[in-house]
Amino acid sequence: MTATAVITTGGRPPRRGARGGMTRRRPVDWLLLALVIVGALLVLAPFYLVLVNSFKSPVDYATSGPLTLPQQLDFGGIVDFWNRVDFPRKVGNSILISGVVAVLAVLISMLNAFAIGIGRVRGRTGIVLLFLMANLLPQEALLYPLYYMFKSVGLYDNLLSVIIVFTVIQAAFGTYLLSSVYGTFPREILEAAAIDGASRWQILWRVVFPISRPTLSVLVIFFFIWTWNEFLIPLTFLASNDNQTVPVAISVLQGDRLMDVTTISASALLGIVPTLIFFLIFQRTLTRGITAGAVK
Known about the structure:
CATH class of the domain at 86-257: Mainly Alpha
CATH topology of the domain at 86-257: MetI-like fold
Structural class: mainly alpha
Largest sheet: none
Strand content: under 5%
Helix content: over 70%
């Protein structure tokens, strides 16, 4: 450090900026860091309790309490819950419903948004507002009319009924989101494709779809997780045990039969694991979709 630099800074080394290195942390920074750590611990605490108590025996839980680590790994609660609810079948139902809904909802959203955002249909503002209002409608208001309709057409207690409902619900949100994205799509690219002789269908699949693929991938992941976690509509329209989803099976078993805390924790753990695995598999896709720009 030169003498001139020391004199101009009052005898102290100059603080480095964002490009010159790290600056000295202020008390406010440490306070924010502490708040973030406390918030993270509060979020992780329920997962810790579920994980720890899932591998305890009822005797171990009664003697050591819910906070301590298990003295010996016990898989009795997991096996008990697995056999009681026929867990593989419930997972299959949830995967089928969530996967079909995610794909169909994204496809419908893309077609609707292409017509609204790029096709510039008349009254597009009112149509987008209609889709926004559909997202604000509570599910409780849909139960009775949907129940009456599915009873009339013979789709009550059928996986197809839940798939139809969630496809419409998720597609309403997807249409609202993609319409704003496609509304800012560069007209030069579309005009160039039209000059080359591409039809509307070719423009959609060869121009719009490849560019918007990151956004569509994010929607597929969100729609899958949101549909997996849904409870009220599957509980209402899937009455038989063979058609129930994972969240419904957990709640019905807890209300129908007396279970110890370890079995309840095991049921919560098994309900979380599939979505956690799905998220870890598609984590890179989700990150790319969020950070990627619409057009380079």
